[in-house]
TrEMBL record:
Gene3D superfamilies membership: Farnesyl Diphosphate Synthase
Name of the molecule in the record: Probable farnesyl diphosphate synthase
Gene this protein is translated from: ispA
PROSITE patterns assigned: POLYPRENYL_SYNTHASE_1, POLYPRENYL_SYNTHASE_2
Keyword tags: Isoprene biosynthesis, Magnesium, Metal-binding, Transferase
UniProt similarity note: Belongs to the FPP/GGPP synthase family.
Cofactor(s) essential for the protein: Mg(2+)
InterPro entries for this protein: Isoprenoid_synthase_dom_sf (IPR008949), Polyprenyl_synt (IPR000092), Polyprenyl_synt_CS (IPR033749), Prenyl_diphosphate_synthase (IPR053378)
One of the GO biological process terms: terpenoid biosynthetic process
NCBIfam families associated with the record: FPPsyn
Gene Ontology molecular-function annotations: metal ion binding; prenyltransferase activity
Lineage: Bacteria, Pseudomonadati, Pseudomonadota, Alphaproteobacteria, Hyphomicrobiales
GO terms for cellular component: cytoplasm
């Protein structure tokens, strides 16, 4: 695996840190998604593995694994364990993208500039690939390589389930669909709560996973939890702004999808200028949350600025 600094990082070095973690995550996922069965498995069907690999490899910034690695580095957690936890989180994220793109959800044809999984393969294969990535995530997060202490692995597993499930990402997705009027009368959702669940929960998990791996104190955990909350909302506001102002070629998917689906977003609620002001407030909140960590929080500070300023 490549080697990258694990403590502090000047802003100008952030892209190198992000790229290094992405490369390490890519290599790890490539190994985890091999066709060779693990102990206890009977066979890994070629078409299923092919679809899982198609939707998981060669794409994305790997921001969620990066958050795990960067937050764990504050506590000098071995990089290999943090990368394993990050890979589990990335499997959840990739599964969610496959399912979000389905005709029954957002009905998207493009993801990261390529045909979506159900367009490349078919709907049944895409559903099963998503299901399998979700299941693989919990296989990975419970492995001994993540952390030597089984209690830490248990806490990581429970937190991941809650971030991905009813009260997190999946719950947020159904709230989003309800806001489109899928189940009757259209009723504008509580955008902040919806975001905290659908998008923010997995991003925040990336931050608190580092605290759990590092067996942080109660105050340290609370600080990373607060940072993760601000980070998640900042990410979504930036995403909403990109959907309005972004370029489809840079985004790798059609722009203006939220408006086409009639979604209520931070931009529709706050306006473009109001959303940009809120984004700056969240950057200040993220910075304040990291104050207890001093220079060790610099990488996470740079990550917050990166999501606020991203173009895709």
């Amino acid at each position: 695996m490549t080697t990258a600094p694990t403590q502090t990082a000047p802003t100008q070095d952030f892209s190198k840190l992000l790229d290094a973690t992405a490369a390490d995550t890519e290599a790890l996922l490539d190994r985890l998604l091999s066709e060779r069965p693990e102990q206890g498995e009977i066979e890994r069907p070629h078409r299923l593995i092919e679809a899982m690999r198609y939707s998981s490899l060669n794409g994305g910034k790997r921001l969620r694994p990066f958050l795990v690695v960067a937050s764990a580095a504050i506590f000098n957690v071995p990089r290999e364990g943090a990368l394993m936890a990050g890979a589990a989180l990335e499997c959840i994220h990739c599964y969610s993208l496959i399912h979000d793109d389905l005709p029954s959800m957002d009905n998207s044809d493009l993801r990261r500039g390529r045909p979506t999984s159900h367009k490349k393969f078919d709907e049944a294969t895409a559903i099963l690939a998503g299901d399998s990535l979700l299941t693989l995530a919990f296989d990975i997060i419970t492995r001994d390589e993540v952390h030597r202490d089984p209690t830490v692995r248990l806490l990581l597993t429970r937190a991941l389930a809650r971030a991905a499930g009813i009260g997190g990402m999946a719950g947020g997705q159904i709230m989003d669909l309800a806001g489109e009027g899928r189940f009757g009368d259209k009723e504008p959702p509580d955008v902040a709560k919806l975001q905290q669940m659908k998008t923010g929960a997995l991003l925040k998990y990336g931050c608190i996973a580092g605290a759990l791996l590092g067996q942080a104190s109660k105050d340290q955990y609370a600080a990373l939890d607060a940072y993760g909350h601000a980070f998640g909302e900042a990410f979504q506001i930036a995403d909403d702004l990109l959907d309005v102002e972004g370029d489809a070629a840079a985004l790798g998917k059609p722009a203006g999808q939220d408006a086409a689906l009639g979604k209520t977003t931070f931009v529709t609620q706050l306006g473009i200028d109001g959303a940009k002001r809120r984004l700056q407030d969240l950057l200040s909140q993220a910075d304040a949350a990291l104050a207890p960590f001093g220079a060790k929080g610099d990488t996470l500070r740079a990550a917050a600025r990166f999501v606020a300023e991203r173009q895709n």
